[in-house]
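Much of what follows relies on a compact textual record of a protein's fold. The record below shows the convention in full:
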Amino acid sequence: MCVNTASGPQCLCSEGFHLDNNGKTCTETSPFFKRGFIVNNATMFAMHEIHSANGQSSEYVYVHIPSSIIESFAVDAELDIIFFLDRENNFLMEHNIKSRQNRMLTSVSSAKDLNFDWIANIIGWIESKESSIRSFSVNSQITDTIYANLQNPAFLTIDPHFG
């Protein structure tokens, strides 16, 4: 949308788009919105835009992940990446929101409760059958067991301010 202002015309783009250098053209940056909720069912992610202040109806964006059963997911909002546990194939996967490409990161056995530490770029999860907590470094591509022989770990979280 472009409007005339006292200093001349100014153009703005909708969420999910950025204004090109020509100052007139909007280009899609991501199919997902800057704010909202991402939810999933077994084979799909859906982004629900938030309009809490103005009461506008929400838009929805869907991404279907074929041949997978999504167990749990975590988001790197800076890089537009969704990390997810594929229960069908027993993999930790990466879905690039912009390119819409999936990539297998590492194998898992009974993974649940995926978390992403965006400070250290580490993904963590619980391996139920092994009663352990494992991690995958996005930077080094190394998988490691952080804790083993735990008594039925149920939930995992990461301090968002300090990793």
The chain has no helices and 15 strands. The CA atoms of residues 69 and 87 lie 5 Å apart. The first strand starts at residue 2 and ends at 5. The radius of gyration is 19 Å.
